[in-house]
Each structure stands twice: as structure tokens, then as C-alpha cells.
Amino acid sequence: GSIENVEQLVLELTNPATRENALLELSKKRETFPELAPYLWHSFGTISALLQEIVSIYPMLNPPSLTAQASNRVCNALALLQCVASHYETRGLFLKAHVPLFLYPFLNTMSRTRPFEYLRLTSLGVIGALVKVDDTEVINFLLSTEIIPLCLRTMEMGSELSKTVATFIVQKILLDEVGLNYVCATAARFFAVSAVLGSMVQLLTEQPSVRLLKHIIRCYLRLSDNPRARDALKHCLPEQLKDLKFTSCLKDDLVTKRWLAQLLVNVGHSMQTNPQNASQNVAQPNAL
Fold it and tell me: Which among 3, 57, 110, 166 would be 20 to 30 A from 219, CA to CA?
């Protein structure tokens, strides 16, 4: 992964004849060459070449005609954009240029074929890289561009992995004070989020997933920090979360078990193995 080799590949991105191979080779080098992001951002014509790759598949989105080859190729371009989104030096520039907006049409797709699923997952990976760094500027940008409805759509219809990444993004937005206030500002926003979280819990009764449940519980716990949302959750928290059989899959995950116990205390419920003890359980939040 010598610098000359990387520089040559970056140059080859701007030539349509050599671009496909350069996309593939550079996406493999992301891990071994940590300074790839500034190279991509500051070299002439590179980012516009990556955006060309993205825009060129818009016609395949509707009606859905995305092939596996086209999906793999654009996902290599997205992998390079993820690297730009992750790097401290280029993240702010990436946001200022509104690059994430180019990915939103991919998150709006409904087709469940593998090429589309892979496209959505890779696009979510770019947004996930942005929110991993706790930065209010990122959250403000995502809220102002209406990312939440797009995440909710994936949380409803994506694969388990896509749902997990989309729920992680919503979780990170909620963990920021600006994000929590935004979601709890109107009943419509709150119920849009809580309804999707609730339907995901219902689906987990048929297809359990510990990693997905973990993010759902964290979202609910964070919502319960807001007084109005906490009152609403007293009525709309899914019954399954109070059912020890349903949550037994968390037995090895002490952090999530603690989150769940705290959530149930916050909304005035307790794990009811024995109804007689319920009132005592609620009275002891410090036992966590």
C-alpha cells in the first residue's frame, strides 16, 4: 500500500475507463492506508467522480432494475465516501458540501432484492460513520435533512443488519440533546419513532436478534429521559419488554439488562416475575 500506488489509483478514479478497478482496489486499501480520506477529498475531480458513480444509478432505482454488478460498483464508491465521513480532517467538509444528501434516494428504496439491500446497508454505513463521532453539528445536519423518516423506513422493512445500523443511527441522534428535543417536540414525531420501535419488538418475538434488541432498548431508555415521552411510554411501551421470557436472550449482556431495568423503573413498570413483589421492585431504583 505504498503512497505512490494509492496516488496512482486516486488519479485513475477520474478516468471512466480505469475507474471501476480503482474503486475496487482503493476500497480494499481503506484499512491499511489511514490517510486515504484527505487524498480523496483534496485531489482534483475525485469526489465528483464518486458522486457521478452515485448519480448514474438513480435511473435504476425506479422501476427497480439494479444489478448485482452495478450495486457492487456503487457500494465501492460509497465505501470511499464512508472513509471521508469517518476522518476528522474531512468530516466537516463532507457535511458542508451536503454529500450525504446524494445517498438519501438509496434509503428511500423499497425493493428487497440483494443488490438493493446491499446498497441501503452501505449507504447507512456512511451515515453511521458520521454519527459515531459525537458531534452536534452532524446531528443538526441530519435532522435538518429529515434523516429520521428514512431510518424509520429501513427499520420497518430492511434486513436484520440494515435495521440494526438504522436503529443505531436513531439511537445516536436521540443521545444528543438536540436530537432528543427534536423527536419529543411534537406528538407526531414521538409516536412515529415509538410506533416503529414497537413494531420491531413485535417482529423480534418471531426472529430474535440480541444486537437489534440492544439498540431498541437504548432508544426507549433515552426517550424516557424526556418527561413528556416518559408519560407516553407508560402506555405504549411493548409488553414484551416486561416479559422475562422475551428478554432472557439478554442474559449475557449485563449493560443492556441494566438499561432495560432502568427503563422499566423510569416508566413505572418492573420485571413481573411475581406480581406481589412488583411494588417493592419499583421502589428500589438504586439497586441497579
Answer: 110
Which residues have CB under 8 Å from 118's CB, separation 6+? 71, 72, 75
- pLDDT tens string 92-131: 999 999 999 999 999 999 999 999 999 999 999 999 999 9
Distance in angstroms (rounded) separating the CA atoms of residues 212 and 206: 13
C-alpha cell of 187?
406528538
Cell for 103? 445517498
Judge contact between 167 and 219, C-beta under 8 A.
yes
Distance CA 217, CA 261 (A): 10
Stated pTM of the model: 0.91
pLDDT tens, 257-268?
Answer: 999 999 999 999
Residues 249 and 246: their CA atoms lie apart, in Å, by: 7
Residues 87 and 220: their CA atoms lie apart, in Å, by: 30
